[in-house]
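Fill in residues.
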């Protein structure tokens, strides 16, 4: 709390575009039991991409990110301008 009062901290909303895990980026729903289906994915609006939102917090040079309260914003929310106040960040792809 002292860092907040002294002005040594900041919180910034940030976001990034990611591949949808519900349809594996195809835009078509992926069922655990049936595999790929022809039904459109409801999570990403059949776009295959989702906009993940985070709050970037920094206190005395230490920075971390935690999910925004509804971090699974669909692409339709992003296109409607609801995510326009965010700073977009580039997240490196994970290697498996």
């Amino acid at each position: 709390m002292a860092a907040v009062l002294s002005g040594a901290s900041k919180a910034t909303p940030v976001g990034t575009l990611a591949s949808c895990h519900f349809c594996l980026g195809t835009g078509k729903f992926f069922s655990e039991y049936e595999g790929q289906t022809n039904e459109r994915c409801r999570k990403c609006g059949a776009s295959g991409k989702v906009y993940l939102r985070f709050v970037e917090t920094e206190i005395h040079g230490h920075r971390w990110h935690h999910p925004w309260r509804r971090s699974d914003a669909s692409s339709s929310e992003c296109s409607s301008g609801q995510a326009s106040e965010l700073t977009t960040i580039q997240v490196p792809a994970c290697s498996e």
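The longest strand covers residues 62-73.
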